[in-house]
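Technical note accompanying the year-one report. For the benefit of new consortium partners, we illustrate the data format agreed upon in the data management plan: each record pairs a sequence with a structure-token string. No post-processing was applied to the example shown here.
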Amino acid sequence: MKSSVSARLNADLLEQQYALWCADPRSVDPTWSAFFEGFELGVAQLKPKNGEGAPAAPVAAAAPAAAGSPSETDLAFYGKVVSLVYNFRALGHTQAHINPLADHQERNPRLDISQFGFTEADMDREASNPLFRDGAKMKLRDMVAALEATYSGFIGFEFTHIHNTTVRNWVRRHIEDHALRGDDPADRKTRALGWLIEADSFENFLGKKFLGEKRFSLEGGEGAMVVLNAILEKCPAAGVLEIEMGMAHRGRLNILANFVRKSLTTILYEFTPNYMPDLVAGDGDVKYHLGYESVRDLPDGKVRVSLAANPSHLEAVNPVVEGKARARQRILGDDGVATDRKRVLPILLHGDAAFAGQGPVAECLNLSQLPGYRTGGTIHLIINNQIGFTTMPADARSSAYATDVAKMIEAPILHVNGEVPMELYWAAQFALEFRQQFGRDVVIDMYCYRRQGHNETDQAAFTQPHIYKLIQARETIGQIYKKQLVAQGALSQADADKIEQDIWDRFEAGHAKMVEMQEKGERSAFSGSTAVEQMPYTHAPVPTGIGRDLLQHVGKVLTTVPEGFNLHPTLAKRFVPRRQEALQNGGPIDWAFAESLAWGALLTEGHQVRLSGQDCRRGTFSHRHAVFYDSETRARYIPLEHVSPTQAKFCVYNSFLSEFAVLGFDYGYSLGAPNMLTLWEAQFGDFSNGAQVIIDQFIASAESKWQTPSDLVMLLPHGYEGQGPEHSSARLERFLQLCAGKNIIVGNFTTPAQYFHALRRQKMRPFRKPLILMTPKSLLTRPEAVSQEADFLEGSCFQEVLPDPMHFDDPMSVERVIFCSGKVYYDLAAYREEHGIKNTAILRVEQLYPFHDELIAALVGQYGAANKFVWAQEEPLNMGAWSYIFPRLEKVLDRRVRYAGRNRASSPAAGSKAQHYKESKALFEAAFTV
């Protein structure tokens, strides 16, 4: 009776847990989840071939045993086995031997067999589980040993956070196959040894030839070369044609020399005290920030390898690499269903502290599966030195691993001992196979150490004395592995020594060649620059107008929807008819219509167009509507995809809520697809400072540092409308402060036609420069801020300074000239008209930088009697263009220039509309009286 009651209680509990699991597998304890998963798999294997019959609930299994059926004891044992397997899969990594500096790995008490209720007698019982080695039967003690070898060896696997059963089981099967693979081929071991000795010797060579020079060595992390070369080796067979890489400075020179294959002679030359970069223009950068690209010729095919240039801002290059990769995928036709982004592989190398601490990591992981930013999966290699500068992991992160952030996208994570080459080799090729199979990110967390300090002049023992005693007493991984292979008989001592000597001789030959070239003064012979030479900037006008037939055709496409498409009533009654009337009447054309006309014309001329940003399809201010949505089905229609049968590709993507990663991605895209007009739009210009690192370190300075030109367009809504400090200023002053050497173009336009021509000019000039635009908000719908059809037609072009449209009977009657930029012009013109002022001209500086002083002088020259000159701006005195522009105006005019605008402020704008109007009124009055 007692046994019967117990069975019934067990059955009730089992039934309850099973019901919960069926509704949501995550709602029950992982042990129950594993049990039910195994149960259903077993039932599925026993189901009739025709598939009839539903799986019986496991409740019946808890009832008293009938003849020939499992007993309660058997079921209890099976449940323990299920729990054992599940826990090793989930927690085996916590006791894996992944730290080369640890003498032993502490055991996880949760994996002790006593925790599962097994007795010593159970150890010789036959056990099996459908989710471990396909249900192979073995003694329990043998199963425990097999689980140890599989999940707690030199690789710790984290994959149970993956919800997709197909993906999770694929990973599980590969892990189990890995544990059964046997010994690795001797030639594979020899290749791995060569890569390690090459990396080790390179650092040793540099240290001897250039004593005390910073090189941010790879020493202690040489295993990274096994990972990279193992991936590269497999690329041709996996269909990979190109690798786009990004990394910080740790080990960069080693990877440039021994993986990307930059000229050794050039790298050595860069260490010499008389090194001067052979640049077209600019200032250059330190050697361990430079990028390079080459084509690696492998036995099975060729692979192009490109390492992006990188600033010291760790992880900032990540989105840039992803953008470049996607652009290359577009160029290679790798974005179709057949290839699905398998030909171009992004690889990112990280430090452990940076991966855990830097925001771009999480942002880029979040990009990985988004439609406009997907690159088919990235292989992340973490060179886990177990330290960040001088900071230990306990002070560097709140998570158990540096990699925990990657779990948010369900990436499999492999924690690998950096001194076990064949495990690194397998992990690398597993990562590539997984990426090619599923198009998702995968992480290799290589546990190693940093033999030197943060750099070669840093004394790490100041803060980690014990660890560095261990490290200094330790042989390099190359020497350790060489001895292992000789001891195993996989390689003779003579052959091992020859590998090392040949590599050293190659380095010596490279150095001798460098010295000889120096002595001969053959600077041009030091090849290795990937600088892009382009023509110097010029103010010469660019013909960007288009024929009337093309304008009308594009306009008609933009105002047509398919038959039966249910356009939103507001768009159908106002938006589209307004554009149709403008086409019929020769204007007026507003800002958004001009933008779409520019894009449509470029598309017909073979230039691809990409726009991305937060809510950019509709536009933050409901002005663009680049995508129409059926108001009943939400089906999408994109007019600019239907301009011409032979048109170029048009892409418009709403980004996720990021500035840093998305701007970096689009900047990278502009590098990889120079024929495409690439635009990024901030939701409000104020928010662009969330991407300030990308602006400072890449957009403004990359051409000077690395000779990598870009013509990315940044659209930054800007203008004082009384909306407070967070929705007024795109921080124009910060961009102007970055201006030098004709590096970027900064504009604040007042007419749609100017915007149209500026966009087209980006693709029509023989040089490439980023275009930073303060785009309007209220001017999007202001009746005066429009253009006529003639302003877009052939013969028209962008004007860097706009003359005053007001007609003066006698220009000599003008006593005052007001200079301004952007929206404030319309407010000043309205104030002048309202007060009947006849002696003041208003000139609009549409392009603030590069500053066209000759054009300014010519326009002012017609007002020969003017003796008062004013710069008017909406921004406070310490912001906006004033500090930048007044010395330039005074130089051109040879006269004092007065200021009209808000007083100095720490906040960009007032929070009160009343205060805003009060300040605006004072600004307008001052412009005409100061």
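Partners are asked to follow this layout when depositing records. The domain at 548-792 is CATH 3.40.50.12470 (Rossmann fold).
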